[in-house]
Amino acid sequence: MTRADGRRPPSSTRRAMFPDAVLHTSRGPAWRAVAAARLVAVYAMTVGLGVFLDPGRAASDGQSLGLLAASSALFAMVSQVGATPREATLALVLLDASAACGAALAAVAASVLPLHAGIDIEWVLLIGAFACAAARCRGSLAAGLGSQFYIGQLVACNEHLQAADLGRIALSGVIALVATVAVRRVIAPNQCDAPSPRPAPARGALGMPGWLCLGLQAAVPSAVVMLLGTHLKLVEPVWAITACVYVVSTSRSASLERIRRRLAGTAVGVPFGLLVVPMAIAHPALAWTCAAAAISIYAMALPERYDIACGAFAFALVITMAACGMDSFTQLSARLWETALGAVLASCAAVLLPPRETLAR
C-alpha cells in the first residue's frame, strides 16, 4: 500500500510493536505491577540480545533482531496463561512460535505474490485477522495464539521481510523465547494466570458456527479497508485493519463497547502524543523512557480499562515513531482517523454478523 505521495512508508517495526494482545480476566494491583515489570524487562532483554547478536545493525532499526523479537515477546508475555509455572512456560513457547510462524508466512508470501500485478502484501493480513478473531471462542490460550500469529504477520509486512529473511525471523523468535521464559522465571515466578475454560460452541448469523462468525467480523472489514486504501490514501492501512481485528469480542454488545472505548482512548492518546513529538525528536532516549511508562500503563489497564489501554498504546506509538525519525504531523495524526475508519467498519460487521448466543469471554 502506498502513501499519498506514491512512496511506501518507511520501515517501522515501531508501528507494529504495540498492537493489542489478549487479556481475559480481572486482576488486582499486584498482578498489574508484575505485568508492567515483566514487559519492561522483556523489552530491555530482547533489544539487548539483539544488539549482542547483530552488532552491525542499529538497535533502532526496524529490522534489528532486538526489535523484531520485542514485537512478539512483549505480547507473548501479556497473553501467556497457565495454572502452573510449567504450563505458563509452555504457553510462552507456543505464543512465540505462533508469532514466528505468522512472520514466516508473510515473508514467504511477499516473495511469491505477484506484487508487480498490483497485489499488496498487506492482503496476507486477512489470514491473521480471521485467525485472531476466530480463536476468541476457543479459550484464552487459543486467543493469544491467534493474536500472536497476526502480530507476526504485521511485523513482517511493515518491515517488508522476504523469504531471504527466514533465518532472521527464526533467530528473533529464539531471542523472544529466551527473553520471555527468563523474565517469567525471574519476576514473580509463582504468579500464574489460569486460562479461561473453552466455551461451548455457539451459532452465529445465518447459522454459521460462532468461530466462523467472529473470524468474518474481522476479515470482512479488513478486506474493505484494503479495497478503500488506495482511494482514501491511507498512510498505514494496517492501523485500520488492526482496529478491525482487536475490537471483535464475543457478543455484539461487547464488540460495540470495545469500539467505543478504543475510539475514546485513541482520541486522547494521539493528540497527547503529538504534543510530546518535539521532545521525542530532540531527546529520543527520553521518548523511549516515556514509551516504556506508557506500555506499563497499557499492561496494567488492559484487563478492565480498554479505553485507558488504547490511549497509552496510541501515545507510545506516536512518540516512538517520532523518536525514530518520523516528524510528519499528517502521518502521525493518521493513527487517529485510520483507527476510526477501522472501528466504523468493525461496528457494521458486529451488527451484521453477530453471534446468536453470547460466547464465553
Please tag this protein with its features.
361 residues; mainly alpha
What order do the helices and strands come in, and which of them pair?
Elements (H helix, E strand, L loop, with lengths): L12 H4 L12 H25 L11 H15 L5 H28 L12 H10 L5 H19 L7 H21 L23 H23 L4 H10 L5 H31 L1 H18 L4 H18 L5 H24 L9
Helix pairs in contact: 2-3, 2-7, 2-11, 3-4, 3-6, 3-7, 4-6, 4-7, 5-6, 5-8, 5-9, 8-9, 8-13, 9-13, 10-11, 10-12, 10-13, 11-12, 12-13
What is the makeup of the main sheet? none
Topology order in helix (H) and strand (E) letters:
HHHHHHHHHHHHH
- Radius of gyration equals 19 Å
Quick one: how many beta strands? Answer: 0
Shape: globular
Query: What's the end-to-end separation, in Å?
Result: 34 Å
Number of separate helices = 13
How would you portray this structure in words?
With 361 residues, this protein is mainly α. It is built from 13 helices and no strands. It has helices at 13-16, 29-53, 65-79, 85-112, 125-134, 140-158, 166-186, 210-232, 237-246, 252-282, 284-301, 306-323, 329-352. The longest helix has 31 residues, at 252-282. The two termini are 34 Å apart. Mean pLDDT is 81; it is low at 1-18 and 22-26.
Précis, in short:
By secondary structure, this protein is mainly α.
